[in-house]
Amino acid sequence: MKNMVERNEVLHRYRIQGKSKRQIAEELHISRHTVDRIVWEYERLCLDTDGVCDMKAFAALIGSEPKFHTPVRVCPVVTDEIKGMLRACLEENRVRRATGMRKLMWTCRSMHSMLLDKGFTVSYPSVCRHVRLLRDSMVSVSRKSTEVYIRREHAPGQECEFDWGEIPLIIGGRRRLVQMAVFTLLHSNHRSAWLFLRQDTLSLMEAHRNFFIAVRGVPRTMIYDNMKVAVTIRTGRQGRPAVKYPTQAMQRLSLYYRFEERFCNARAGWEKGSVERSVEVVRRAAFVTRQSFDTLDEAQAWLERILLKVNSVSGITGVSDEQKQERIKSDLDTLQPAPEPMSCFEAEQHQPGKYGTINVDYNNYSVPETLAGSTVMARIYSRHIAIYHQGRRVADHIRLEGKGGWSMQLEHYLGTFLRKPGALDSSTAMRQVPRELAELYRIHFCPDRQREFICLMIYARDHGILQSQITAAARSLRNKGVRHITSDHLKVELDSMLDITPAGEADVTDAVASLDIHPRQQRTAIEEHAMSTLDSLTECMRRPAATVRTFTTSN
Q1: Cβ neighbours of 323 (radius 10 Å)
Q2: How far is CA 320 from CA 125, 189, 311, 323, 445, in A?
Q3: I need a surface site. Which of 70, 217, 341, 497 has the fewest CB within 10 A?
């Protein structure tokens, strides 16, 4: 069947000019069977039994498009294997939707990219068509919105939108709901994003600081929705409208970085539609294919690599990749100059309790035991906590999630353990030391040499030796054939590794390093050498204080 113009031309020559069907087919270079079908349809719909034409029916016929009865055609490129993979993606979408991961579902674009990565040659429209056929049999098609929106043009460096997005990821083998802060420069559609474990005030401030450092400037207007960490809404009374006020943290940010904040109306996401779309684009581009990471920093590094690809492609109809880069450059060049990075922390005063800990957001963090009963200052950052006493930094902790957690460092309780060595094994502080150090204690100092291990840790604390250096010294001794490690062995090996050995002790260190022990005489040789080492260290301690070097540590 031809189109409407060609069909009407056939009817004109047959009805007005009186030409035969064969003649019409030859003149128009079409099949005679096509002419037969056009004429048959005309006679069936418009002519009565007497051959009189019904003009209303004829007018309806010539004003309508021909109906094609095309048989269902099979796409040879989309094989059964590809259909199975598409169906598996849709089934996985159903599982992700049921388990709270609906924002990481497969889209037609991600399915097409996955097929291309696996070596299949298939077009994007073919994928969309078959996904639509499969999806129609699985889910109902939602009604389309009929609302009309106004398209806007944005000047370079003027406006930037901010929003949060949630991503269910597996961090260190544990599933967590990670918060993603997304910034979008409206002129160029340049996207930036950072990951946090919380959606709180400190994360908001740190995200803005990171963004202004990354783009080396500050937009003149920042656009937000009604998030609690950015805006306070006071309900109007006696018929007055509600009034929005920026939070204290938002006021600090706007005053320090000199930008104006603008808040959207409630339930009006179209007022900042760019960043809403950016959250979806970044989330799908980065985390649909990968959700498991060892640490949050690894996830952030992965996100930054994906953002480089996202910002290098236009994604806008009529705008080439080169034009996108020109817009980004124009955006960055017209930003306001950024001041020095802002310190993003909250300061709180605390007094350690009976366990030598302070309580921050319902979690407990240890301080040195000598500060029991004193007042300390805690600087709370988004991911860690720094504790100060009289202007001196005395402790650092990774900020815990949830409530009721304990972060206790072994070096904070060494004096108490020296008086109560039996409490070391079951203590929370000992359970939280690195695994390699715990293994060193369990194999060489437990169950009857706790005091020796405590003295070793006091020695390391007083001389600025890290726990990782102690475990490195233990590995070095094991590589040299030492099976029964003592604190004296570790001290000598640490002196050698740190290259701060006092005069007279180098010979002892060399003796340990060059010790050749036969397996049958291992225990006797180690014990004899331990006694020799102890004598050498005792001799060093008897020397005048002026000849003994001390360890220093730099912050």
Answers
A1: 13
A2: 21, 13, 12, 5, 67
A3: 70
